[in-house]
Amino acid sequence: FSSDDVTVIFVLGGPGAGKGTQCSKLVAEHGFTHLSAGDLLRAEQERPGSQFGDLIRDYIKNGLIVPMEVTVQLLENAMTEALRKSGSSKGRFLIDGFPRKMDQAHKFEETVCPAKLVLFYDCPEETMEARLLERGKTSGRADDNAESIRKRFRTFVETSMPVVKYYEEVGKAVKIDATAKPDQVFQKTQKTLADRLG
Ligand code: UP5
Ligand code: MG
């Protein structure tokens, strides 16, 4: 995709920081296309005939990062499909929960499209854990349990925080405090977008 036509925003933050919640609000008010890497992986896991179903199930349960080829391809397909449906070569995408490892970041920016901005939702683990355990009562997500949550936190600290640090160093990342109420976090999100994208 040409970055003249396509705007890509990476949405990062720990498990339960509120990435999906903020993306939904941005879709409702600003007409972005929201692509959650986790949602795409869960859909692929359920797709009859997928050769990756068992692999994805295993990685997600253990909070590990699925080999990047799978995820990058799913994202690229979803972007192509969204543009096709809209009948335009232009689009604005929120890529939620990706990249969470340096190799994914380089691969995506080189083969798909460079990101214009990275939103980083910053939230302490205690808060994220409480949110995820609460959601786990009804979410049906195989990773919303205490053991998987611990593994997800570990992967986030060890593997995904270096990606956030990298984008902070190159000046693309904006850190947003994610502990306030969703609407307050959204106000900061909107301000950031106005400041950075105009
Ligand atoms: N909530 C949200 N905001 C709140 C607020 N401000 N105040 C109070 N409550 C708030 O929110 C989580 C819960 O908190 C909800 O109940 C919400 O109402 C409440 P949500 O918006 O869903 O947070 P989010 O950050 O999206 O949390 P999620 O659980 O989706 O984060 P993860 O990053 O863990 O999950 P994801 O789906 O991105 O990835 C899952 C797994 O997929 C990974 O662990 C990994 O195994 C795999 N994966 C890959 O392998 N590669 C990838 O590239 C991506 C994923
Ligand atoms: Mg999410």
Automatic annotation (TrEMBL):
Catalytic activity: UMP + ATP = UDP + ADP
Sites where the protein binds ATP: G16, A17, G18, K19, G20, T21, R135, A180
Cofactor stoichiometry and binding remark: Binds 1 Mg(2+) ion per monomer.
Keyword Isomerase in record: no
Keyword field: ATP-binding, Cytoplasm, Kinase, Nucleotide-binding, Nucleus, Pyrimidine biosynthesis, Transferase
Region feature (NMPbind): 36-66
Cofactor(s) this protein requires: Mg(2+)
UniProt GO BP: 'de novo' pyrimidine nucleobase biosynthetic process; pyrimidine nucleotide biosynthetic process
Keyword Transcription regulation: no
LID: annotated span: 134-144
Subunit structure: Monomer.
Name listed for the protein in its UniProt record: Uridylate kinase
Shown segment, full-protein numbering: 110 to 307 of 310
